[in-house]
């Protein structure tokens, strides 16, 4: 470990253009400040939003870009003002690495809604240094945006909880759906959706998976523990299920109709949007008016909720279903993720990939 004032070299895999193809990339980390920790990255999950970023789907990408925001690693250096962590701690870093700390969301501990939040990649720190993500061997992060992984939790299992897990936990917690006895729907059974089933079941909910085809029925019911399974094109079954759900967590990341799912909600039910979609969604107003239903959204979770979901999953024995890969497989993993060919989250064994060799 060097001086805190000395910039250090990191080796990652970066996209250079909207093709999204990643290849080795060497860069300097920002200076480690007094309130920062340096993390040696062990594992990093692959999220669908990483695809959006590297392919410039939202028109805001800057290259070269090292993606990856479900980061688990070991603290190897701490600044003199760091109080929450020590060298050797196993920690997690999610999508955010900065915020203004003075706005209303920041003061309410919901810094994910800060207008000046700083993303862990494809962004710029206040000192002008580009942020780079977790598909690399090291990163430097302010201690506020680092969480400790509970003892006894496998670090590779913790990675998807830092985005997929907290993304589901946050709205259930915020909207009061964290009590037992509710009936919920999970629309889409990918990385976020499979965590939705597991977390909702751990909260004591009756969970229905809603999908466009029948091919994931057995996985949903037998492996993930869902109580029911609906194929959205089966009009008869959809009509039978009308007005039966307290909420639906909509994880679908592509344009899709909302009206079939609004019909499944009870009075005062909520359709909670989580997929990043860059085209307008449509519905007719009576679909919400005639049941006082809500279409709302939720974005990841706060640092407080990230800590909560880790401890919740540890206490309830909730684990994510992962497929472990090495970094040299990352482009194939990206292609498979785009085809929804993963059950249910890729996690890159970063340390085992030996990026510095």
Structural class: alpha/beta
Please tell me how large the radius of gyration is: 20 Å
What is the residue-averaged pLDDT?
95
Count of β-strands? 17
Helix content: 10-25%
Q: Overall 3D geometry? A: globular
Number of helices: 11
Under the CATH scheme, the architecture of the largest domain is Alpha-Beta Complex
- Major beta sheet, specifics? 7 strands, mixed
CATH topology of the largest domain, anyone? Quinone Oxidoreductase, Chain A, domain 1
Amino- and carboxy-terminal Cα gap? 18 Å
Overall description:
- The protein is an alpha/beta fold and 357 residues long.
- It has 2 domains: 9-162 and 321-349, Quinone Oxidoreductase, Chain A, domain 1, CATH 3.90.180; 165-297, Rossmann fold (3-Layer(aba) Sandwich).
- Helices cover 23% and strands 26% of the residues.
- It is built from 11 helices and 17 strands.
- The protein has helices at residues 48-54, 104-107, 155-158, 164-174, 191-202, 217-223, 235-240, 259-262, 286-289, 303-316, 330-338, and strands at residues 9-15, 22-28, 36-46, 70-78, 90-93, 96-98, 118-119, 138-142, 146-148, 183-187, 206-211, 228-231, 245-250, 265-273, 294-297, 322-325, 345-349.
- The strands form 4 sheets. Strands 3, 4, 5, 8, 9, 16 and 17 form a 7-stranded mixed β-sheet that branches.
- Strand 13 (245-250), helix 8 (259-262) and strand 14 form a beta-alpha-beta unit.
- Helix 4 crosses helix 5 (191-202) and helix 4 crosses helix 10.
- The longest helix has 14 residues, at 303-316.
- It is globular and about 65 Å long.
- The mean pLDDT is 95.
- It comes from Solanum chacoense.
- It holds the Pfam family ADH_zinc_N.
- GO terms for molecular function: oxidoreductase activity, acting on the CH-OH group of donors, NAD or NADP as acceptor; zinc ion binding.
- Keywords: Metal-binding, Oxidoreductase, Zinc.
- Residues 20-348 form the Enoyl reductase (ER) domain.
